Amino acid sequence: MKIKLIFTLLLPIALSTVTAMAQDSPSFELAKPSAKQIAFADWEVGAFIHFDLNTFTGQEHGDGQEPPSKFNPTQLDAEQWVLTAKALGAKYVCLTVRHEGGFCLWPSKTTDYTIANSPYKAGKGDIVREFVNACRKHDMVPAFYHTAAFDANATLKDYKGELDLPLDWMTTWGKAMSSAHKNDPGLKERLKKIQVEQMRELLTEYGPIGFMWSDHWNAQDPNGVWRAVTDLAEELQPEMVFMGTDTWVPGNETGHVVYPMWNAVNTVDGTNYSRPAPTKNDITDKKNNYGLLETDVLTGHPLGKFWRVRECTTNSGFHYGGWFWHPDSVKTTTPKKLWEHLDLYYRTVGLGANTIINLPPDDRGLIPEDFVMAAKIFGDEIKERFSNPIAQTNKIHKGDTLVLSWAEPKIINTVVTMENIANGQKVAKYILEAYVDKKWQELKPRNKLIGFKPYNSSPGYQTIGHKKIDRIEPVTTNKIRFRSLESIVHPVEIRQMSVFNCPPVVKNFDSKFPFLSGLESTSESAHNGVKRDKNYIGNHIVINGKTFQKGLMVCPVGKTKKGHIEFNISQYQDVKGITATIGIDDLANHNGSVVFIVRTYQDGVWTDLYTSETLTGNDDGVNIDVDFPYSPSKLRLITTDGGDNANSDHAVWGNIQFKLK
């Protein structure tokens, strides 16, 4: 096999080492996905059903201390869940059969903390069975969420110390678990037995399961409980896709995937039992030994040994309010807008990853009506965009150049390219061209996405993997050309290429001009993304008790310690400045510290017009009134971490609006 090396990959790979591998190991092969990994990648969209005792208690993670008697859905309909997922366009549906709190949605023999001791169907119910039956009835793949790492009820069942209930996930939850293990040397082995037996029940009593979301996989002692349940899953259901050995998460729960992205990875211990190892430029938390998903941002490695499909979770990508449904008195659980859902699709599936979209049932046991409607609108929109290509290849093409033509010139604005990943991921850089006026011209990418560093908000032509959706500057043509410029192995293999003329993505905001939250930005970067007219859980913005109906929340990003949103305001000739109230939203619980900066641009020069003092979560909002000394073409609002943890700095530009001449 001839190896063609990458010369411009932005990855810390020693080319001399790669050359040695290529020359000294003629049998060297790229990592390749298994048949079940390829099938999983083809599913592309999944649905997450977060339903649990938490739905009735207001908790997100569950401390295992709430009684099963609180679990009492009176209208539960698993078919409604599955049909909503199907309308979404999902191919698989994943139910939280047992979340971190330990409450089981089936009558497990391993614990009394199950629906058998709840009012649901007088203790005779089995929601797991109802769920898998509904999936099979409607031709959907059933999947389970289960975590062997955390079982709060089993961990604290015999705990002798005092508990400050309800336990808080970020503080007292972990301390209580650690204390229980410290004071009970035999606890670890008992927990391992419970998790293994629960896995055995789930994978022997409910027929074939397509996918297992094993939360916090490889979190605690890779030679103990995790290796045991991983081996058991492989033994009982070898065709099941297992999150850990077969898939991996993107490093956040907002539905963002790093780009460029390689599905091949190396692992921290060189075996398939451990998490992917970071490359030099990746972001990872070396203290992360309990499987927290948000701290590892991994690009993958083109010469990695193991194949891991990326699956992007969407705790806040599709809706506000957290993983579980909550009443408005706790958190507002409500869908986001269609344009935000489309952005989620383009930044996950469109960059070669799967996305699993959360559809949380409420305390009736039904997915709320607004979610049902939003799911159908999203599913219909994706079908409209991608069901009828103008032209499409119909066989695998081997070679660095591929031409696709059709009879009559038509306007195109989207090109979808898929690699034949069965033989590995190879493309590192490519170009798309159209034949116009008897010559080839480059198609300029227009892949603007909602993003925050290190996630690429303007991906170009680099990796493809399973699929790359490129939105391009519209052009009228009857012929396009793909050319691979750099690849790991020559020749590359293209499974399919398609062209479309998709309708524009229309962004509708709650606010209107002169409020800046009603204007589309030219670029933005914020932890969890910029929020408009809402805080991070979907409620009104509040600064030290004062509520704001409109505003921008621009939380600094951890790595850069900055957040920003930029606007092209050259069209607004009648603006003379801005007014706003700046401060930290009360959701930060008086934490955080932020500096706010107003910056304008004219004639090639950026000018800082305003810089605040460092504001903390204890401060009242500060009213600012900033005049423009000239008519700027661009406006940039910047927030910088004041020094005590960027992720708590819920920085707000409350009621920010233009002053008009």
UniProtKB/TrEMBL annotation:
<comment type="similarity">
    <text>Belongs to the glycosyl hydrolase 29 family.</text>
</comment>
<dbReference type="InterPro" id="IPR008979">
    <property type="entry name" value="Galactose-bd-like_sf"/>
</dbReference>
<dbReference type="InterPro" id="IPR013222">
    <property type="entry name" value="Glyco_hyd_98_carb-bd"/>
</dbReference>
<protein>
    <recommendedName>
        <fullName>alpha-L-fucosidase</fullName>
        <ecNumber>3.2.1.51</ecNumber>
    </recommendedName>
</protein>
<dbReference type="InterPro" id="IPR057739">
    <property type="entry name" value="Glyco_hydro_29_N"/>
</dbReference>
<dbReference type="InterPro" id="IPR000933">
    <property type="entry name" value="Glyco_hydro_29"/>
</dbReference>
<feature type="signal peptide">
    <location>
        <begin position="1"/>
        <end position="22"/>
    </location>
</feature>
<keyword id="KW-0732">Signal</keyword>
<keyword id="KW-0326">Glycosidase</keyword>
<dbReference type="InterPro" id="IPR038637">
    <property type="entry name" value="NPCBM_sf"/>
</dbReference>
<feature type="domain" description="Glycosyl hydrolase family 98 putative carbohydrate-binding module">
    <location>
        <begin position="510"/>
        <end position="660"/>
    </location>
</feature>
<dbReference type="InterPro" id="IPR017853">
    <property type="entry name" value="GH"/>
</dbReference>
<dbReference type="Pfam" id="PF08305">
    <property type="entry name" value="NPCBM"/>
</dbReference>
<keyword id="KW-0378">Hydrolase</keyword>
<dbReference type="Pfam" id="PF01120">
    <property type="entry name" value="Alpha_L_fucos"/>
</dbReference>
